[in-house]
Request: fold
Amino acid sequence: MAEKILTKNFDLRDSHTLRVYREAGGYRAWDKARGMEPAAITEEVKKSNLRGLGGAGFPTGVKWGFIPKGSTAPKYLVVNADEGEPGTFKDRYILERDPHALIEGMLIAARAIDSRVGFVYIRGEYVQPWRIFSAAVKEAYDAGLLGAAVPGGGFDIVIHRGAGAYICGEETGLISSLEGKKGWPKLKPPFPAIKGAFGQPTIVNNVETLVCLPHILTRGAEWFAGLGTKTQGGTRLYSVSGHVVRPGVVEAPVSVTLRQLIYEHCGGIRGGRALKAVVPGGASAAILTPDEIDIPMDVDGPKSKGSMIGSAGVIVMDDTVSIPDALMVVARFYAHESCGQCTPCRESTGWIYKMSHRIVEGKGRKEDLDNILDVAKRGAGTTICAFYDGAVGPYISYIEKFRDEFEALIRSGAHA
Amino acid sequence: MPKLTVNGKEIEVPAGTNLIEAARTAGVEVPHYCYHPGLSIAGQCRLCMVDIDKVPRPQIACNTVVAEGMVVETETPRVKDTRRSMMEFHLINHPLDCPVCDQAGECWLQIYYMKHGLYDPRMTDEKVHKPKAVPLGPHVILDAERCILCSRCVRFCDEITGTGELGIFQRGDHSEIGLFPGTALENAYSGNVIDICPVGALTDRDFRFQVRVWYLDTTKSICNGCARGCNIEIHTNKHRTHHNQGKRVARLKPRFNAEVNQWWLCDAGRYGFRWIDDDSRLTAPSIRTDGQMVETTWDDALGALAAALGRYRPEEIGVLASPQMSNEDLWALRRLLDGLGVVNRDFAVPPREPGEDDKLLIRADKNPNTRGATLLGLAPGAGGLDAGGILDAAAQKKVKCLWVLHHDLTASGFAAARVTAALEGAEIVVFQGTTASLTSARAALVLPSAAYAETDGTFTNFQGRVQRFRAAMPPLGEAEADWRVFGRLRARLPRVAADSALGAERPEQVFAALAAAVPAFTGLSYRTLGDTGQMVKA
Reply:
């Protein structure tokens, strides 16, 4: 088993406390970062090949570099802890088991982008993570790690709880919600780094992304980059759910293959059954068939099969699963969660759900499948945010890869 | 200024212009729903997609700013296909109830479907149902099923009036426009949301179901509701006279003028047209005979007025002109009074309730032509009495002929007793105006005036902008434009010399005469005024 890095504190007793975090070497990276020039921190992060781990996989150091040089405006660091992608639960583990790692990561990032205020947007349903993280923030304030004492003008953390909308995990939807508005994604340009929260330059980073920073600073960018593949450094947390023997959060280098994740880390398919399909990166990723799992689970591996690594939420389905049922479930999710702002997404998520539901009810028509595919493709790439493109992934892949199953269901009107 | 190419045509537009506006200057219409030049960019309808050279996917034109050397194509197969898709998305949950929808005929879903849609509908499932026929306020009614959620109305209330009554509630295809709890859409500009709603979601409670819009005629005009002089269109129903409850004016709509009202019109102006077709309109001259008002001919009425004007010395005549009258009316009157030597003249009658300027359009002065009346010299002549003085002189029987134009003095800011004393004190009271009132009821001679909507003319707004309005229909009954009446009157008054204003046959001739005589109007003509008007000389 490879070395645990992001999860190294997870199994320590009271790992959520400042005392245990410090005993395990915590806040030493911050001590080092305090002595570094902000630009040097950004440079180190760029060299580490750290990619955003919330879903989009954008290089973190490059993103920081979009903050206008020499801007005297207040700059905000926003932490996306709205973990809402179905099949993803890794940030929850971090918030509950290693909250100080996030605080330390925020301090480092804030120094790099010259931010004095960090907002942590926590998913509304995450009550326990919110309690634990809030207690850790209080501990950090009491210890002088946060507040006015932070060099460079102080650093404060504001915790904001979401209210249950998936779209508020989208970078600009989150910013709208944080501003007290309806959680509608914003038109780009302007991008958040230019004009983000409250109209100021803003960097939105995922929880796990920030938690990588202390390790990069203490052990060096080369070391971190070396853990992964050519285009992505480090390890990451895979949330594996579904029909495996040992579901849960698995830390592995990003070079791990999907097959290894399923059969080695998670003990294979339950009851010795056959793998039917697997979603590699949360509900928005295209589905893969058993012959497509020999791929590295970095940003490029799933992409080579027309899918995406997304939030690394691996959903494993054995041969008991009805793919038309699965499509109906994800279609219902997207119809329910579409914010309603852009016409193509608002209208077609509902329409596709109705069609997929009708098919499952045994009232499918032979033109339904082509209609779903056509509607999905027509709307793809036409909206303000990536939500609809995320919905299109399952719509198209479920039908194209399991068309026989859909057609049999439509013909017979009943599940086989 | 960046140069770019739109559909092969090279254009140059100011930096910062978006592609919808840039295309417009090239004569190309990019279809859109949510974009409105007077509101912030929403980018929601996704209809305005265009192809831009070197950009992999079509982009929304509303949120794309021009750049030097940009090559934009609005009619590529890919753009046309995207547009057709967007039309389908807009319509899958739309009730398609055009036959009973008041917007039919001026609905952008209909227009763009015929122009850019024309697909075979594929949606066979149950549509989403939402609230219908929901009154949002005194003027606006909502059908949420017809709404395409372009958010123009929401942005109008947020950005233009700042009242923020409207929001979009719920999510996904259950999203709907609605009022925030405890509010109603009753701001002073609420009717504008009806204009900017591209579909039949927000319709006019006043206008709906009165007449189909394709029966309406449109005339460019100027609102007479206050000193702003908002540019409007008068929509008249002449072809289906049994519709619209037999009334000719069906509705008023704002007409864009960048310098005056942009795209907007206040509710007071928009709905303040009832009087034009009201039963209280004066439609024939009448004269008091044996204590009773009896209809008479214009010849007899003008003869009676000429006789009265000839009977009294100039200082025994008092004239109250009105800033509701056009520049043409006022100038012809001025020439007549100068010819008679009448100096007891004024136009400023205080209102009963003082108005208030607001931050958008509404002016405290509820008259469309106060500035014109001032510039054209309808204020008291040398040694003449002002309005209050004329009334008091009438009460003291010093002014014996009191000629009141348009004002209802009994509804003015003058005390009732002062008005009564004047109307009773004068030997003869002449009323000339559009509408019967307690003032006209006390006159011995009543002359019916054409309404502004029934005649051509100009008003000068508070900024000094001279703006044309046009006759939307002939005067009601025997009513007549005031300037024409003054000309006919002059012919009966040998004391008053002939004059190009008083001898005019068309209003532009009166205007030409005043432009030649009054320095502020030098160089102006109906042709130079055009549709948006011109400023008087400072």
Notes: The first helix of chain A runs from residue 18 to 23. Chain A has three domains: 18-227, 235-318, 323-412. The CA atoms of residues 249 and 357 of chain A lie 32 Å apart. The mean pLDDT of chain A is 96.
